Amino acid sequence: MRSQRETWGDTLAELAATNPDILVLDGDLASSTRADRFADAQPAQFLEMGIAEQNMVGVAVGLSTVGYIPWLSSFTVFLTHRALDQVRMLVAQPRANVKIGAAYSGLLTGLTGKTHQDVQDLAIMRAMPGMTVLVPGDEFECAAMTRWATTFDGPVYLRLTRDPSPALFDDSYRFRPGHVHQLREGSDVLLIATGPQTSRCMVAADMLAHEGVSAGVLHVPSIRPIDTDAVVRTVGRYPTLFSVEEHSVLGGLGGCMAEIISTHSPRRLVRIGIEDTWGESAPNDFLLERHGLTATRVAARVIAEMG
Amino acid sequence: MDRPRVADPELERRARLARWHVMSTVAASGAGHVGGPLSAIELLVALYFQVLDIRPDEPEWADRDRFILSKGHSAIGLYAVMAQRGYLPVAELASFDRGDSRLQGHPDATRLPGLDASTGSLGQGLAVGIGIALGARMRGRGFRTFVMLGDGECQEGMVWESVQVAARYGLDNLVAVVDQNDLQQYGWPPDDRRDARGDRGSPWSGTMLGDAFRAFGWRVMDVDGHDFDQVIGACSDARESVGQPTVIVARTVKGQGLSFTAGRYDWHARIPTPDELALARLELGIDASGQPT
After folding, report:
1. If contacts are CB pairs under 8 Å, which of residues 217-236 in chain B contact chain A?
2. Closest C-alpha among B6, B69, B5, B65 to residue B41
3. B205 by DSSP, 3-state: which?
4. What does the DSSP assignment read for B140-169?
5. What is the mean pLDDT of residues B30-36?
6. Three-state DSSP class for A21?
7. Residue B182 and residue B162: Cα distance in Å, rounded?
8. Fewer beta carbons below 10 Å: N end or C end of chain B?
9. B124 closest CB neighbour out of A49, A66, A86
């Protein structure tokens, strides 16, 4: 298993070998985001911007206006929180061709704690007109999204995770914006997930089967745009829905689903994610357990909610 | 700068007309800013008529010099000068701040051709200018990038991120122009600085703004921002810079050009009354046909 951050750095290095317009701008975190792989492979296309994320966003916008395809390299939290106004005014509003490589998303950020965990980024970025918001579930999807985003003309937010996660796809995967993937059929409940949380939901669905609950799994890698019709068609087959995400229960995937379902196909939706609280420094297993996101905890929650 | 003060009559007329357009447009729209646009008029007229290598009839010309108004709230001043330069009809100024207008309250590059960046939230334009200048150098293009900042705007921390990075990359094709009009929207109470040019405290009282840029490795030029010859000369001298970005710290007066607005902080964003507009027309020497005498 290759982590998403490694996949991202490697994929960009491959693309840049034949496209001199691809740049990476780094906020002094390349050795964490693995943009260092790009820097090693294409040093002339790597621009260190120092610990100054707001400026970095603006510089990327300027570079985009003279035809470059700049990718930003930093931690999610610094791009979506510290540089939020710059992303809003300079990137999203003019639809600048800037790609946001947001590494270290979610809770699992390597023992850094709540200062470095970002569990509001989807809520923020998906509320931004003009922004494309992508959440890869594994390394294959990550590579495909990185390639697609580099070709697409417009701002893209790519939510990357730090640690390797089980594969959902293989190297035949092709990304289509908005597309949702039903990875498992079921009849009692539907687990709707994004990012590596989908792989934990696949395990949860196995556990639920042992308990006599037939759970489908819908993987949603493209938070914005999203194929609303496909979501509506899928959820219509299930009486009860669960959104599950390594993100706040406010405004992320669960919020997105609540908006679609309440309008087009009203039915019960339980949102599983980080409740209205901050994270903390702890090993991954502890954090997933604490916030109810392990396969075991997700399965238990489903059974409890089914009453 | 030890250049003789030689007022170019045509530029001076253009500045008066631009000031009139600022006042009349803001009065008609019932919105907009006054003090900041008026302090920047000579800088803008000098840039658009003497300094920038641009083609108003070909606003996307790839080798044009770039200009970013980072102090985006002075948009009406920029539009007034761009209109005279031929980027838009002067009559279109009447659409300022109206629905569907190309002339938004803050510059919107997606609407008006000729704008090189969208600005408004302060402190962000210099970073975009760095990206353009860096891109120009990487592509081997000879055009220059100018960014105008306000002195109040320079209180934004992001400006100093940009100042450091511009020097770090040795961007000698980048020129920052600071419209140091010595006032901001509200700011501090009046202080006793002898050189204060406004009726409240200077945004940078206690700090020499030019020295701050110099400490970061910039080439610094101080000019009278209402003196065309000094401004044009400094922009020309900036071409000589090797391996250093240049900042032109332009001493200006907020609300310059009108007796009742000059040095008055409360004219940051006031709407002229009909009487004030009449006085402005008189002081600016605008005839009945709307032209400067």
Report:
1. none
2. B69
3. coil
4. T----EEEEEETTGGGSHHHHHHHHHHHHT
5. 95
6. coil
7. 22
8. C
9. A86
Using pLDDT thresholds of 50, 70 and 90, give the confidence band for residue B194.
Answer: low
Interface test with B, best of A59, A86, A97 (most B CBs within 10 A): A59
Task: State the pLDDT at residue B99.
Answer: 93
Here the tokens at position B81 are 């000068």
Give the nearest chain B residue to A48 (CA atoms).
Answer: B165
Low-confidence ranges of chain A (pLDDT < 50): none
A189-193 sheet: strands from edge to edge = A181-184, A215-219, A189-193, A240-248, A268-274
**Cβ proximity of A91 and A121 under 8 Å:** no
Q: Which of A305, A225, A230 is nearest to A264 (CA)?
A: A230
Tens digits of residue pLDDT in B244-275: 999 999 999 999 999 999 999 999 999 999 99
The pLDDT value given to residue A230: 98
Query: DSSP labels for A24-75?
Result: EEESS-HHHHTTHHHHHH-GGGEEE--S-HHHHHHHHHHHHHTT-EEEEEEE
Residue B19 belongs to what H/E stretch? helix B9-29
Decide: helix, strand or coil at residue A284. Answer: helix
Q: What is the pLDDT of residue B7?
A: 60
Position of tokens 């010595």? B182
Any CB–CB contact under 8 A between B139 and chain A?
yes
Interface test with B, best of A55, A82, A99 (most B CBs within 10 A): A55
Question: Is B162 in contact with A49 (Cβ distance < 8 A)?
Answer: no
pLDDT at B5 over 90: no
With beta carbons under 8 A apart, name residues in chain A contacting B167: none
Query: What is the rounded distance in angstroms from the CA atom of residue A241 to the CA atom of residue A271?
Result: 8
Looking at the DSSP assignment, which residues form a beta bridge with residue A70?
A: A23
Report helix angle B35-46 to B9-29, nearest 10: 150
Q: Find tokens 């406004």 and name the residue.
A: B198
